Structure prediction request, 626 residues.
Amino acid sequence: MKIMGTIAVNMPTLTILSKEEIAYRFVIEAANLPGLTISSDFENCDIVLGEPTMIRNALAALPRLKWVQSTWAGVEPLLDPSLRRDYILTNARGVFGGLMSEFILGYLLAHERKIFQRVDAQKNKKWDKLPTGTLRGKTVGLLGVGSIGAEVARTAIFFGMNVRGFTRSSETCMYIDQYFHNGDLLKFAESLDYLIAILPNTKETRKIIHAEVFDVLPKHAVFINVGRGSAVDEHDLIEALEQNKIAAAVLDVFEQEPLPREHPFWETKNLTMTFHTSAPSFPEDIAKVFIENYRLYIEGKSLNYQVDFERGY
Amino acid sequence: MKIMGTIAVNMPTLTILSKEEIAYRFVIEAANLPGLTISSDFENCDIVLGEPTMIRNALAALPRLKWVQSTWAGVEPLLDPSLRRDYILTNARGVFGGLMSEFILGYLLAHERKIFQRVDAQKNKKWDKLPTGTLRGKTVGLLGVGSIGAEVARTAIFFGMNVRGFTRSSETCMYIDQYFHNGDLLKFAESLDYLIAILPNTKETRKIIHAEVFDVLPKHAVFINVGRGSAVDEHDLIEALEQNKIAAAVLDVFEQEPLPREHPFWETKNLTMTFHTSAPSFPEDIAKVFIENYRLYIEGKSLNYQVDFERGY
Prediction:
């Protein structure tokens, strides 16, 4: 942190570039952070808190910029190699696990409990006792076991599921029953009831889920993607669904967002889409990440959740 | 247990009267229970395991009957005062909590996550980022805190909810934040986000949920009934939904089942029905209850989960 002048560090100016600026300002002002000025004056701005898409457009106009706190987990808009990288970029982490678990469990239970089929039965005035399933004893595979994956694993265990984790190397989550690594993707996918992708967008994760994976998944398996759309070969997924290689898919993320109207996903069989809403950035959650990081910042300490521009997360 | 002859107790004959007779027979035979014969010979039958509806029709033809183990929690078909009561009736308990929690959490999450609205958006090819809700911090009120209610409470706490319990008197569940009793039903219902009825069918519970309760519930509240249909005034519920006094209802149980085709519930606004499927009696679960009780039975001990014919549960 030696590059920072003492004045800037002690009396920093924060600019909020967020659609929820008012909510963020409210929470941060209430925290009475020492030395902090909140201002939309780009000339004097040291710190930016906000959405990567909005920050990207402002990057060139922030001469004093030292630190960007993203309100999102994903920071792709700021990773373009043509953009400056002379500042510390931190993302939002440790706050989405609970929300993501709610989303995933919601769709797992909707599947087991045949929530959509029962709505159709009601429309047809049919007293339809379709046999119900249970999560207990089912096996879920988590592609990616960071802080979100760990929380999803904890929730799956609560419901009596078996949990497999696929990671690059670390095996630190106590809620994973069985770990798999690099060469073992197909072994990991074999006999899963649910496959959940929670991967960032990197070179290594690009189209990691493709035809071979769908081929080894059981026909009754459900695939859920809450990470990044780039992790899936969209063509292979459509084929897997149309040919009943798997039972269903729930996609929250896509290669291109918003999804173009002409994209075949809109009408692909057994595909449910949720428009990138699985884990919203609630200002009261994200502001806490910023406040904790701000305290580290003014003390000249290393910030939490720093993004490696090369690695991509 | 003195009324039983030694021979009957030591070498009892079990008759299975269930739609899932084969599954029950398979699990019980595998348990190698001492002295037990499984037979459909009514003349020699000491014990019946099965569905109350099927057992009711056989009751008069079982001269040696000593014990009935119901595969259901609800035993109304056997409580008719015109029927014999000269046997021990035990119901299925302690096995439905997990299944019921899955059902309830499934519909709570479907509501928070706007699962049905997002399906409509997809049909209309609309990239619709309807803001999502979360269970965290919401308040659920459980009408009835037996073994099922306790498990639902534990699950709600896991998701960060606040939990209120309404019971006759006992306060034994550690997952209830706040207890309410007899006179306090309206205070209990005030400001709930979710009201869940898990009540058996008794004189005291009949239409306990009526217009006054719907009047004090917030407009955004959701009502879920997984107990018995008789606990709700159906007319008052329809009025509450049609007049937007509450946001939605999920009904698994009804005064009359199957629900008659001409019943207004089929088309009541914001009403979802699930055809009494919330906690199915899986033979592998219920057989365990029977097996444990059988061991008590041959030792002449008091059986678990005895039903009081007068009280009704």
